[in-house]
Amino acid sequence: MLEVRDLTVRFGGITALDGVSFRVRRGEMAGLIGPNGAGKTTLFNCLTRRHDADSGTIVYEGEELTSVAPHAIARLGIARTFQNLGLFPRLSVRDNVLVGAHHRGRAGFLTAALGLPGVRREERALRADADAVLERLDLARVAGHPASGLPFGTLKRVELARALVGRPRLLLLDEPVNGLNAAEVEEFAGTLGAIRDADDLTVIVVEHHMGFVMGTCERIVCLDFGRKIAEGPPAEIRRDPGVIEAYLGTV
Ligand code: ATP
Question: Residues in domain ABC transporter (predicted)?
Fold first, then answer.
């Protein structure tokens, strides 16, 4: 589904990604790990066209992503969540989730105010979809509640809901369990696994929580100083001397 080839990104004198290559198969849950500053978020930014790479290519479902406009990424079926929650505190949970469906409306929500029947039908359908996603993520109870004031674990699920309402085929999760307690991490892992299976999603997870990564990902890519230092199933990565030295310490 995805092939990253020789990707290099420089910020002035810093090489954030240095010739990184890997593939992700359809339906796979892949992990991207590495110490702070290894280049993980930069890689996500390239996959969503927030950054241009200096060299290298990204081929997604047979299409070269560098030729795709940044605003068209969601239409291609790529959605992401962010390390720092990007929710609107005063908007309700439902409206925050609907933001993730912006690319699915033909004319956008503003024109719904003009009262065109087709647009109103479209908006109703999107709202029904948002409600279905809220239900799946056990957020229906708080759908009308403003995002501010909700527990952090709930907000993490709202972020996931916002990504899912866009009906992605490739889901990029940036530190989805950071800040969650052990029970919430376990619950999130279960929910994500169930959604991945039901929706036939391909997932790439950036995460420092090794229990989560090792337990949920089928294959892991480890970056260090912008270079890929290892790639393989969790059991191999856990034992890889380069990964242990750069990142894991004694495990
Ligand atoms: P973390 O685990 O801390 O989130 P990361 O693996 O996601 O780290 P990146 O955020 O991709 O790492 O950063 C890779 C390198 O690129 C770092 O040295 C960082 O300081 C640098 N970098 C990232 N974005 C920029 C930018 N916009 N301008 C300058 N340097 C940047």
Answer: 2-250
Burial of 11 (0-12, 13-18, 19+ CB in 10 A): exposed
Do the Cβ atoms of 46 and 58 come closer than 8 Å? yes
Supply the residue whose CA is at minimum distance from atom 24 of ligand 1.
Answer: 42
User: How far is ligand 1, taken at its centre, from the CA of residue 43, in Å?
Assistant: 10
The strand pair at 55-60 and 227-232 is best described as unpaired
Q: Ligand 1 within 6 A of 178 CB?
A: no
Could you say which DSSP state residue 148 is in?
T
Q: Which DSSP string do the residues of 68-85 spell out, in sequence order?
A: S-GGGTGGGTEEE--SS-
83-122 pLDDT, tens digit each: 777 788 899 999 899 887 766 655 455 555 555 555 666 7
CA of 16 to the centre of ligand 1 (A): 6
Q: Are 79 and 133 in contact (CB under 8 A)?
A: no
Q: Model-level pTM?
A: 0.89
